[in-house]
């Protein structure tokens, strides 16, 4: 590029700047290349460093990683200590894809009877269509019920306040034993019409395991007669009562939506 725009040994005005802009490099670098070429020709532009120069790449064998115990492979620091290499070197090999990170979840210990029961349950969901083919039950008549505990408040809570606003005060009797409330959540499979539009999202409701009654006696926290919310004790509580209420709730709201 430089030789094509010169009258040896004079370089045209503005060529260095144009070439530097084209190759996204400093003008000073283009000047050095031009002077080296004028002084020594193409041999002057060759790299004088030996071919095997520079820091050598530290290779990590996959077999060496496999030989390390699993409890020593939970963090890069532990794995680097077991392999005898630096953590930065191990991290570079990780970015190059030499090994991967895996999130392992614990599995249930299933016996032969457990696996047979699961297969039997799956087979019980098979239905025969009008054409004589087998298909799985769409499970539109099944509700999924589960309970969940929620703390009344968190031990540490973040808020965004203006500069002249006072800090909110939250208090409990014990920070180690914060009150909890149980909720019963009921969902089912969503419904869609022929055009793919959702007509029922499947969210039936969430019901608290609480009841409100007047306080029986005075205390330092509240006087007698004030309504207080209490949590049901789950053990021995008639769960079927909530299931019946859920069924009535579903029927009522489904008819209203229809």
Automatic annotation (TrEMBL):
Domain DUF7769: 1-37
Highest taxon in the source lineage: Eukaryota
GO molecular function per UniProt: nucleic acid binding
Stated name of the protein: DUF7769 domain-containing protein
Record organism: Eleusine coracana subsp. coracana
């Amino acid at each position: 590029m430089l030789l094509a725009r010169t009258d040896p040994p004079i370089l045209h005005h503005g060529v260095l700047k144009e070439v530097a802009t084209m190759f996204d490099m400093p003008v000073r670098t283009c000047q050095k290349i031009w002077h080296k070429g004028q002084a020594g020709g193409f041999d002057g532009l060759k790299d004088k460093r030996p071919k095997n120069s520079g820091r050598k790449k530290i290779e990590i064998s996959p077999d060496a990683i496999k030989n390390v115990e699993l409890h020593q492979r939970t963090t890069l620091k532990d794995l680097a200590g077991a392999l005898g290499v630096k953590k930065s070197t191990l991290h570079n090999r990780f970015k190059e894809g030499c090994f991967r990170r895996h999130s392992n979840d614990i599995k249930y210990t299933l016996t032969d009877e457990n696996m047979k029961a699961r297969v039997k349950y799956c087979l019980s969901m098979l239905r025969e269509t009008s054409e004589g083919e087998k298909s799985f039950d769409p499970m539109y008549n099944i509700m999924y019920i589960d309970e969940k505990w929620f703390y009344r408040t968190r031990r540490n809570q973040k808020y965004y306040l203006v500069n002249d606003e006072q800090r909110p005060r939250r208090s409990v009797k014990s920070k180690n034993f914060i009150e909890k409330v149980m909720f019963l959540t009921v969902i089912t499979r969503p419904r869609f019409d022929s055009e793919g539009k959702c007509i029922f999202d499947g969210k039936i409701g969430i019901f608290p395991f609480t009841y409100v009654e007047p306080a029986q006696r005075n205390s330092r926290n509240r006087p007698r007669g004030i309504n207080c919310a209490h949590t049901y004790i789950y053990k021995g509580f008639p769960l079927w009562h909530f299931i019946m209420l859920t069924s009535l709730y579903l029927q009522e709201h489904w008819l209203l939506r229809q």
